[in-house]
Amino acid sequence: MNKKIAGVILAGGKGMRLGGVLKANLKIGSMSLLQRAKNSLELTNSARIVSIGAASQKSFDLTPNWVAVKDFSEGEIIQKGPLAGIAAAIDYLLQNDRQADFLMSLAVDSVFFPSNFYNLALEQLDEKTDVVIAKHKRQIYPTNALWRINAIKDLPQRFEEISAQGIKGMLKSMNVVEMEINSDDGGDPSQNVNEIGDIIACGERIKKKKAL
After folding, report:
1. Which of 7-11, 83-87, 158-162 has the lowest mean pLDDT?
2. 58-74, pLDDT tens digit by residue?
3. E strand or H helix at 169, and its extent?
4. H or E element: which one contains 106?
5. CA–CA distances in Å: residue 196 to residues 44, 62, 200
6. Coil, strand or helix at 96
């Protein structure tokens, strides 16, 4: 299946329980969360986007093959959560005539997310599927998903209406496939970093993986 896949890293969130730091620049082991996320999306074959919230582009370490977009809003740029990052990516693709069949979204703090997720997700698709969402055990991660562009292309135009429901509310009207994924160490591939303890736990997990 030869499909064009764009990628967006949702990197605008601030770690409020981490002192308000920009999560993207936090280092786990020897690598920043942003670099780890970029590695996870390295197989995308269309536009590569980083949604930076309301932050300055200068705050992010971006190479020329990545474009920064601020979170989408119909008024002033404000924090609207991950849905605003996805809307910003869709708006960028449409406004710049970037061809893509699907959009792969990924939370910047998904430290162990597999780079082959979207290839596996494509295998789960049928013509009625709107989105394939990462799942680990009973936990689903709507931020880490492969979206059919045609299913969400009206998100920028209907943003205020849809954002009131949130990302999970939007999913209620969509044809969703939840795809179980596992890391080679048996842990959660979508493990997030929200507190100091998470940084420590992820660092220890990386050490154990290297020792395998």
Report:
1. 158-162
2. 888 888 889 999 887 75
3. helix 166-171
4. strand 102-107
5. 31, 25, 6
6. coil
